[in-house]
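Ticket #4471: structure export looks truncated?
Reporter: QA, pipeline team
Priority: medium

Steps to reproduce: submit the single chain below to the structure queue and open the exported record.
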Amino acid sequence: MTDTPKNTPENTPDTPPPRSHGRLAVSPSLTPRPLMQDRPRLAGAWEARVITLFPGAFPGVLGESLTGKALAEGLWRLDTLDLRSFGIGKHRNVDDTPAGGGAGMVLRADVLGAAIDAASQGLPDRTRWPLVYLSPRGRPFDQATARRFAACDGITLICGRFEGVDERVLEACEIEEVSLGDFVMTGGEIAAQAVIDATVRLRPGVLGNAASTEEESFSNGLLEHPQYTRPAEWRGRGIPAVLTSGDHGAVDRWRRAQAERLTAERRPDLWRAFTAQQAGKPRED
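Actual output as written to the record:
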C-alpha cells in the first residue's frame, strides 16, 4: 500500500483542469462588484460604477483592445452593482406597473434609490463624480461631454430597462440624463459601454499617442479627414498624391480642407457652429 496517488485523469500533471476550475462564483451583492479583481489598483485611476440588472454584460467589449489593456493594467476600473440585489420581496421585484395605466413596467424609486445610495458611498461631489442615467430623453452625448467625464475622478451610470424609471428618483437624486441619439434601445447597458469607451480613451496613457485624440472627429469642431494606408493602389484607386509628397504643410492643408468639406456636407449643424465660432459669434443651440 502506498500513499502516492495514481495518475488518474483528475490528477495527471499534463491533464488540463476542468473548464470550471478557478472561476468565481456569482452571488448577489449590495456593494459595487469590482471586475477583474486581480488587476492592480493604481492611485488616481478613473473609475466607472454601473448600476444594472445585467452585470454579466460587463466588461463586454470594454475588456478588449486598448480599453481592455488599460483595464488590465489598472489605468481605470470598472465596478458593477446588481440592481436585482435591491429588489423587493421573495422574487426581488425591481419594477411595477405605471401609475395612471399604460403598457410596460417602470423601475421602482425605492429599489433604484437604495442602489444609488450604495453606489455613492465614499464618493466625492457630483462635479468630480457625475451620476448619469442613460435615457433617450437626455441631452445628447458628444465629445465635449466625454471630455468632461474624463476630467472627473469617475462616473456612476444607471442602465434603465422597461419603460424607464420613476421620475421621483431622478428628481430627488438630481440625476443627469444623457442620450446617445434619437432612438430607443431595450436597455442602457450598450449605451453605458459606449459612454465609458468614449471617456476612457481620453484618459492619460490609454491610447498611448495623445495626438490621436487631438486629430480625430469633433476634437476641433470638425469631422475627421479621410484616412489612407497601404496598398498604394487598390481596385484602380490610388492614394491622393499630396499624402505621399513628403510636404507636411501641404498635407495639413489638405486634411483641413477635407475635414471642412465633409463637415459642411454631412453635418450642417456642426458646420454652422464651427463657422460661427471662427467668426467670433456665440454658438446657438
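Status: closed, not a bug. The export was complete when the record was re-opened. Leaving a note from the reviewer for reference: Residues 1-13, 17-28 have pLDDT under 50 and may be disordered.
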